[in-house]
Amino acid sequence: MPTENSCVTTSKLTATGRSMAELKAVIPARCFKRNLRTSVMYLMRNVSISAGAFCIALSLDHFLRGPSALSYLSILWANIFRWTSWIFYWWFQGLMFVNFWAYGHECTHNALSPFRRVDDTIGTPYYSWQMSHVIHHSHRGHAEKDVSFVPPTRSDLKIPRHEDTMEYSDFFEDAPFFTLGKLILRQQIGYLAFLIDLRTTSPKTESLVCHFLPSSTMFRHRYKDVVLSDMGILVMGGLLFYATQSFGIIWLIKTYGIPWVALNNWIVLITYLHHTAPEIPYYRGKAWNFQRGALSTVDRNPLGRLGQCFFLDAGHFHVVHHLFPQIPWYHLEEATNHLKAFIGDYYVYSDEPILKALWRSFTECQFVEDEGEVLFYRNAKGKARAKDQ
C-alpha cells in the first residue's frame, strides 16, 4: 500500500493546479474512442465461453455418474472428480458473471459504444442502478454526498467524544470470529442489501431508497425507466422459475445459484477495496472537488492478468476510470500509464494481497470524525493512519 505520506499528498492534488483539462490532455485521444464492433466481439466471445463452461460442467457430471466412468473409477473417486469439477465451474462461472456485470457497468457510462440507446439496450435492466452509480461518480470521496461508500461518523455510531480513558471496545466487537462472520455475511449479501435499501452504504440517507421502487425519491424523474428495469427482472425471474420446473431446484442452484452468489462476493470485494483503505481521505465542504474525489480511489491487481480479462480492466485501473468514465475498458491500461506518468505520487496503487487488504480495511476502517474537511478512517481503537484537517 502507498505510504501514509503519499496518500496525504494525494489529498492535495488540486494544490498543484492540475485541472480536469490538463489531466485529460495527457491521455491520447485514441483512448477515448469507443468501438461498438470491438465491444460486441468481446461480449459474444465471453458469452460463448460461459455457455461452453455450462455445457462442459453438465457433460462431466453426466459422464462421472454413468457406467462408463464407473467402469474405470470407484464411486468414491468418481464423486471426488465430479464435485471437483463443480467447484471449478462455480469459481469460473462466478467470474464470468462478473464479466457480464462489468459489461452492464460499461453501458452505464456509455463506454461500450458511442451510441447511448445501444448501451441502454444492452445494459437493461439497470436504469435505477445507473442513476445511483452516476451520483457515486459525481460525488466520489465526499463524506456526505456519495451514495455507495459513505463512511459512518462518530455520531452515527453514537460514540462519545474522544477521551484518553475511553473504552472503544464498548462500541466495537473485537472477537476475530465474530468479525470474520460479519465480513463473510457482508460479502455475500452486501450488494443485494445496497440495491434493496441505499441506507446500508449511505448512512446520511434519511428515507428508504430501493432500486426496485420507481417511487423512490432518487428515481422519480425516471419512473418509467425503473419500471422497465423491474419488468426485465420479472422476465429473468420467470425464466429461472421455468428452469426450476423443468430441471429442478438443485440443478438451478448448481448451474446458476452458486455462481450468482460468487458474483455478489466479487462485486463487493472489488468495489470495496477500490474505495476503502485507512490511508485514503474523504472530504467535506470546500475541501472536496471532483479531482480530489476521483483520486481518492485505489488501483489494485486482483487475479493479475486473468482478473483483467474477467473484470474488464475497470477492476485494475479504477483511478482513471473515475476521472474519465467514458474511456472503454480496452484503453484503460494505456490511459493509466499516461496519467500515472503525469501525476506521479498522486496516483495511488496497492499490490497488497487482496484478502489481506480486505481484512485490513474491514477491521481498520470503522468511522470518521464529525468535524473537519479532510478525514481519514479511524479503527476500533479510535486511531487514524493520518491526521484529519
TrEMBL record:
Coiled coil: none annotated. InterPro entries: FA_desaturase_dom, Fatty_acid_desaturase. Residues 85-349 form the Fatty acid desaturase domain. It comes from the Eukaryota. GO terms for biological process: lipid metabolic process. Keywords: Membrane, Transmembrane, Transmembrane helix. The keyword Glycoprotein does not apply. The keyword Transmembrane applies. The chain crosses the membrane at residues 42-60, 72-92, 226-243, 249-273. One of its GO terms (molecular function) is oxidoreductase activity. This is Fatty acid desaturase domain-containing protein. It comes from Sistotremastrum suecicum HHB10207 ss-3.
